[in-house]
Every structure is written in C-alpha cells, then in structure tokens.
Amino acid sequence: MPQDQFLLMLALQRLTLTNFKNYASQSLEFSPRLNCLAGNNGMGKTNLLDAIYYLCMTKSHFNLPDTAIIRHNEGFLRLEGHFLRQEKKEKIVAKIQARKLKELERNGVAYEKLSEHIGLLPVVFIGPDDNALITEGSEDRRRFLDNTLCQVDQQYMNELILYNKVLQQRNALLKSLADNPSADSSLLDIYDDQLIDPAIYIVEQRVTFLQRFSAIFQSMHHYITQRQEEVSLVYQSQLLENDLGTLLAQNRQRDLYLQRTSAGIHKDDLVFNLGEHALKKFGSQGQLKSFLLALKLAQYEMLRQHKGLHPILLLDDLFDKLDEQRVTHLLKLLSEGEFGQIFITDTHQTRTELIAKQLGVEYQQFVVKDGVIG
Amino acid sequence: MNFSSKLLEEAVNAFASLPGIGKKTALRLVLHLCKGELENSETFANAILNMRRGIKSCSKCHNLSDEEVCVICRDQRREQGVICVVESIRDVMAIEDTGQFRGVYHVLGGVISPLEGVGPGELNIDSLVQRIQTGEVREIIMAISPTIEGETTIFFISKKLRDLPVQISTIARGVSFGGELEYADELTLGRSITARVPYRNVD
Lengths: 374, 203
Hints:
With about 375 residues, chain A is of the alpha/beta class.
C-alpha cells in the first residue's frame, strides 16, 4: 500500500437524511470499509447511495432536479454527512427548500459557489444506468468525461462553466436574430472569440486525460475479463483537426438557420471499440458489462491517483447485472486493498453477507425497508 | 391578509409592489403614515410625484438628472476627455463616493445578455460611440462587473471603437484592498499574479 494509509483515507462516518426521496428521517453510522445495504426493490437502497453522491457532487446521480428529490408532500430536505478525510473531520450539510437557492455547507460555512466543493470528496457510482454510456447519445459520455475531469481539475471545471455560459448566450442570440434578422450580428463575433480560449483548454485536458485513462482502462478490462481482448477509447472532436474560430466561421450560416451552435467541444464524443468494431453494434451483453465496469473502475483509479485519496465507491445492484465470474474478479480486486470505503446494495441479504465474509474485511450490514433502515 | 378598509388595502398593495418590500413591511409603513399628520403624507406623496414627473435622463451620459444635461456633465472642472463607462446609475454613485475620479460618465443601462433579452441595441452603446466620434475623448475606462456578460460587453464596445483614436482601459481586477491573500479565491489570485503591476517606490 503506497504512502501513509491515513492520508489515503476518506470515509463517510455518519449520515442523517431528512425528507430525502422516500426517507422521512434517518440517521446511520457506517463502517470505514464495507457497507452492505440489503432490501427488496423499491425500498430505498439506491436512494441512500444517491444521498451520499449528492453530498460529494452537490447533485443527484440521476440528473434529477433538486425539487424532485424532496420527499413527497414536504417543503424541504436536509442531508448531513460526517466525513473523515485525511484524518480531518469534514461536516457537509446540504439544504434544499422549495423556491429557494440550495445551500451547501462545509463545517458550518456555506459555499459561495457550489462548484468549489467538487473534488473535495471524490466518488464513483457504479449502477445499472451506466448502460446509457453505451446506448445513449454522446451527451452521456461527455458527462462521464467531465464528471471525472471536474473532480481532479478545478480549472477544467471553471473553463467548462465559462464555455457553457457563453454558449448559452450565443444560442440565445442566434434565436433572437432569427426573430429579428436586421439586428446586429457582430455580437456573434464576440461570442465566437469568447468560446475559443476555454475550448482550447478543455480539448487539451481531454486529450491528456484520455491518454492516461485509456491505459488504466485497458489493464482494468484485462483484469476483469482475464482475457486479452483488445478494447479502446477513441476521443472524437472537431477541434482536433480545425481550430474553433475556423469552425464557427464555416458554420455561421448554418448556425443562424438552426438557431444553435453546431460546432464546438459540446459535440465531442468518446467512441468505444472492441477490437476493430464499435462496441455499441457488435458487443454482446456480457462484453458491454465488462466494458462498463472497467470504465468505472478506471475512473476510480484515475481519481485515486490524482487525489491521493481512495474515492468512495457506490455499487448499486451490481450483483444483479454481473455473472458470477465477473463478480469473483471484482471481489478479488476489491479485497486486494486498493479500495477505501465501499457501499453495496443487493436484494439478497444472505448474498451480501457472504460477499462481506469472502472479502474478509470489516463490514456493516443494513436492512432497508420502506425508507427505514434497521 | 384581511383589511377593514379598501383604501388601506390599496395603499398596502402599492407599497408591496416595490422591490424588497413584502406585505407585512408594507402594512407597517402604511399604518405609520395613517398615524402621522396628513401633511407628512402629502410631502411624501409629492416628493414621489415630483421626482417621477421631473426626472430626466441626461442627454449626454444617461445618468439621472433634473436638467437636460446632468450636473456632472455640466461641471467644467471635470475632465471631459475621460469617460468612465458603467452599467447603471448606482455604479455612478459608487464611483463618485470614492472621490477618485474627475472625468465624466456614460451609463449603459445594463450588460449584453441575449438570454435576458438584452442585446447591444437595448443599451446606450451607439450614443457612446457618437460621443467619442464627435468629442475630444482621450480615454474610456470600462468600470463593468467582471462577469461573463460584462466581459462580452467590454469586448463588444472595444471592437466598435477599434478604429477610433481613444485609449481603452478597464478597472483593475484582483485582491481586494485590506484583504488577505489566503482568503482570495484561486481565480482572483491567479489573475492578480498574471496582471501584476510594477511596484512604484515612493520618492
């Protein structure tokens, strides 16, 4: 194990939920290693993982608006997490009230910008909806990329926020120009210029990041499948061949017609390949699963290396979607000690217990029933 | 809220239509006026009416004014060749309070933000360009908030003025006076380092 073990330590010790999704009021103490949440479907196991994710990333893992995660018929929600990070206590509180700005506090002090919190508590969520990374459009893959990069690079996040705000203004201008063609279109030049600098930084970071990430991803994949299948991630961006200024100029007429910006880093994609073929078209169900798991474990490893901290690992319904062989490999990986705190949900109580025993680590078992945890 | 009087209700609603004033505060203000002399209410109401009827926008700088041209623009002791460009009238007051500026102003009336429906045409940008084309303006100082919309506005105006012989500067951005470095956010501190200024020794 590298360095001092305490420096790598990140763990949620205590969590209090008030009016979060189907939880009315609940307080829990966790093990710093393995926590198993057992219970039937619809009881709130995943919601608990989402609460932990929320405290780390200031939003729900499922892209839900803040108003949608408040318990039905209630006016507010509150999450309080007591974390231990590199031997220091961190108390994080999230408060959401209907029709008010949400608040996030670290040790009693409210953040001025929520984005300042991202990266303090690295987290990886592995769940059934990861499938969207393969089946859905490029937006999900960009979000995966950005999610990881934002946790390791504050400047990346700032540049991304800047880019998106300018892009929004540019699109709004394109819309208003369509309504009123005689209006001043020279403002478009200004927005084009303002997009260029953040775009250059973001592309550079995506390229460098993916070089390192690919290597880790491949080794994870080989480990899980125990086979030497050739897998690769290919970064696609219009900006790799042309500079953004040229692209925006070329697409100016098209943009005016479409009323949105058709070139830029918001069109980037990540292509998943299996051998020489696209995974989406040619991968079997089993191959998709291994690919996704390797992707997420590589994200974990990347965060760990950058942060010098073991991220919190949230495993949702993992044992329902993976076959026994993959589970065994994953367990081996987990038990080899390169992981920190883990949360696992499962519908079978006995299975989770067995897993915990197999791992031979300290663990805590919780039974979730209708938003109440015993 | 239940009112015993229609007149009371109307007055409360009128006050509550103002920004930052809720129903309860409005009621307190109205009850205060009720208790006081009629004369006080008349003075109060007249002050509002007179202000609203008489107030003008300065034809040069768009600051609020009693006359066609405001007192700042009329003041011949002020440097007419230096224009400080600001978003709003409140910014004029803030800069005037510093006592550090002896030039004149130009109030834009906002910043460019197509998302909010504010394009360059909604702002007093053309009149600024005209002032610079016709007047003897040496320098314009952009005193605009360092937000993305502010940057866009500065960028837009400076492009419009590109071919005119006028020097464009922006107010300095960086660590606040009396502030401590360790509490400055990274972006501000980073910018302060990149845009550092030569140290002038006191003679």
